[in-house]
Amino acid sequence: MMQQENERPIVGILAQEVSDIISKKYPYSKSYIAASYVKAVEGSGARVIPIFINKNEAYYRDIIRSINGLVLPGGNVWFYEFDDKTPKENGYLRASEILYEEIKKRNKENKENFPILGICLGLEVMLFIEADKKECRDTCRPNHSIMSLDLCLGYDESRLFKNMNETEKNIVDILQKPMHYFSHQFYISHEVMKNKFNNDWKIISTTKLENQNTLIIAIAESKNFPFIGLQFHPEKIYEWSTKQKRNHSQEAVTACRYFFDWLIKESKKNKNKFDNSDLENALLISNYHKTFTSGRLNFDELYLFDENNSTQILIKQTSLIHCVI
Question: Which residues are catalytic?
Answer without folding.
Answer: 120, 233
